[in-house]
Design goal:
heterodimer, A: 442 residues, mainly alpha, two-stranded antiparallel ribbon, 4 strands, 66% helix, extended, B: 603 residues, 2% strand
Chain lengths: 442, 603
Amino acid sequence: QQPGRGLPAAVGALCRALPPRARPAPDTLRRARFDRPQASLDFWRLLYALLKQIHGGKWTESDAIDNQIRFVKSALWYHGYGRPELYRLPSDGSAGSRELLLAFSWLLHRVSLLEQLLAQNRVKTGDETSVCTCEDALPSSQKTTTEMAPEYALGDRIDVRYLQWLNGRLRFQWRSLHAQHQEQCKLLHKIHLFTSGSHMDQILGHFSATETDLVRQPENYKQLLQLLDSETMQLEAYLEWKQLEPVYWQWMETVLDNMAEEGKMCESQDAHVEKSGLSKATSCCPWADGLTGQIDRLSRDLMTLHDQLHKLVTHRKAAWCEKVKTREEELEKEGFSAAARKIQESVELKLLDLTSLCAPEKKKMHGSCRLVFRSKHPASKTGFDGCVSKEPVSAVSAAEVIRDLQLREASLGRELKQLQEECRRRLDEIAEGLDRVICIPP
Amino acid sequence: MEWAEYNSCISYVGGGAVGGAGRRRGAAAGAGAAGGAEPGPPAVLVSAVPGLPREARLRSCAGREVVEPGRGSGVPGAGRARVAAAVWEPPRAVGEPNPSVRSNADPGRCVSSLPRGYEEEEQLHPEADSSNGHEIKPSPKELAELELLNRALEKALKIRKSVLKKTPLEAQRATGEKSAGEGPAPKNAEEQQVPVPLGIVPESTKVITVSKKPASLKKPSPCQLRAPYRTEPDVKKLQRKAPARCVSQGSRTAGKNLSKGLACKPGRSHRTAVSDGDTCVAAELQKTSGLSKSALNKQQSFSVGDSAGGKNSIAAGRHVFDAGKKSCGSLGESSRKEDPATEGVLGRSTSPQTVTLQQKGCQLKLPLPYRKAYSRNSRAWERCCLRQTNADAAAARNRFIEGIQTTFGSPMPAFSPAKIEKELKVLQDVPSLLSQYVEAELADHPTLQGEYESLLTLEGLQTTVSQCLHKLQLLRAALESQMRLCPDCAEDIGSCSPACVPPRGQMCDSAGVLAVPLLCYSSFQELRDLFALKLQVSMLHQEIALQQIIMAELLPVLESRLYPEEASAAQLYRAIYTQLCEGGKRFPVLADSSRLCVSSPES
């Protein structure tokens, strides 16, 4: 039943298609298939490295193994992997290589592990900028705030002026960051404009800052060339893998079948352990708290809106019925029903936009993109005609991103306003309690 | 910088102390009204005028700092609401960017203009300023105060600069500033607005601005309000002697840069250059230099001509001057920044003007090894992108996936944590968007058709809202059951955080996208807007987080009255109010009601 010679080739291609820094030896997979304990540590490390890369975290090979295992477990949970056997594996990494092989294969498909890693580690030769606001949505988990030793905070009394001063400084830093961004834009745009038509890739058309520098001092970019070449090899391995893939999945089926047979024998022993381990509900996790908070806030906002709409609709509907009743004949004469149908259609169209926005399938770009300048007046551009038609599907226009950002900005602004309103209310109450002081808001 | 203002604000609470930096000329006019008890300057004293709401009057004073003379104590019938409280007002007028001159938002100069005050809603209007300046001649005492104010602000500026110098850009500027060596401040403020005395710093900054920081390529649109803030060069309007020197300085530096650019390794050319098109470039060059000359002339005529400082003419002059500056600036910069890039191509060029990316950029060629590697790489990407999973593989894979998922323990919740996050992200802007729609429908419709359409829309919106609410309920339930399954949280309460660090990036998957991700922009303005908006969004995120923290930590202090002594209550209150309700931008006025009683018997 062993799928002959195709398998080593497939596994080899798979390994080579993985990023160099986490690349396993093909042997690891083979040993894991027989659940060899010596492979299990390697496998934990592999999964750790891969998942860390996917989630954009910093990591080193020397991270403590139990931390690595914990991370892998929670990342698998995060992606919805549900084999209880995996979560019961010992935290010293001494066993379970076959279990891990299964999890790895599951990730391969469900998270598109290979594709994501390839896309994420893409060698960057262009001027990249992120097109999503994901990175900002989650506040940094590192709570280093206490580390900063404020010079003004002697003892445990901190002058409120120090806070104000810090705030002023912060605003100032934002300001200079803004200025520097704008400066960067200016220079980027100059490079894009002045080099348009120079790039051999006609989709791009112009150099990036890196490439401009590369023209200037090519000797500094040996490493970049190496990276490009190694990425090319990785991509070729990926292509090979895609060809040999069926063998691998057939193999995985047999592995799973074996597991199931063995599993039946020891199932009875495990049953009670499972229950006790997984039944506690906790709210200690800041991640979960954050999500709950978000759900609460959204629900509150929507409830307010719901009530408002309910009132409005009832009111309008009553008025409308009244009107229709009194002018029924008149309306019939005018052929209102035809008009009404038209109106219904146009409203449906109008709301279609909205529902698509609420739909999870909404195609949204994430991650970072290469900035490309496309002048709106192709006539003024010296260079290739017809290159515009070769527009890749994955291109997103700045206008779109700007629109999304504006929406995001508006909704964050609302959130901030709400918070400020709440503060104002509470502070007004406090002001009433203050002696001899009248507060006149600005 | 705002904290300077803050400090001066705080030093004065309740009308007692005298904040040196807070002094304003106009304030002195009203000093008598308080019954002579106060030295006054930071306080604008307001006694009630019948029939005018107190708040409104205070507001008008705050805006213009004009205290109606003669209405102080003797107004008949002023017995009702009498507020003789001291009202502090931030010393914002001095060195504030002139809101009427907005033509220029060059990022380069933004940095240099940072030291100036922030632009605020409550700015003094320039008209008010100049009219003030013309009508009231400053007394020697006021001049002395101005002098004092100057020194305070100078000091504040120094501190700011020390912060500025942290970036290399700033360091560069700072050195330039030293060499510029400007004269002392024009002390005489006779026909000028309040901001005059600050001329000192701006002048020098400006020189550097010209020499080091070229203006933007395109004229930025004047109303770009989406930026987190608008920093603008407010510098030029008061120049008397600077322009000429300024430009010459600028061109001198530019020239230096050019020659430097030329001098650098001219022999290293290893690429051949196609050098046609030089003629048009030269023509363009002439055009620009001509422009700069004429701009200079115009600027000079302005600076001599309008002593009144009518803001329009000043603005115009500045505009033109900017244009001139731009032309010489961009020359300087392009050669400074790009010459090494083109040097390979144009190594033997004799004319300094031709060594720019601008002129030779379209003829540059990437080195051959790179071109080879790049095209191999991009071909590989293209093939990977087009590669489909074959049917065999898909079938086997799906069997495996299904098989493994049947072994999953207890019925899995409908959403994985990753999915929950994703769904929430989709929903996060929905309330804001929906309320926009609702607001659009609030108006009454004149026609029956319109009314019907509006009704239908509202009903549709209602359905959407209900759907979203339902979705949220599902998500909440899923989250709860997921948390029961969470390996770390279940194992060890309290220590889940390191591993529960939300695995980020999942949101950014768009699985299987191997295509080259491109972001196309079509104009410089679009690029700028994009960057500014991204920053704005990040800033709002931070602001919200800070707001929540401050709310949680400071409001209880006020509410529980745990602060030390009574005197600091108002101070603390104002600080917190400013921070929490106004985003640190505006101040509430705290009036001392006991002072009200003191002044009322007099009238």
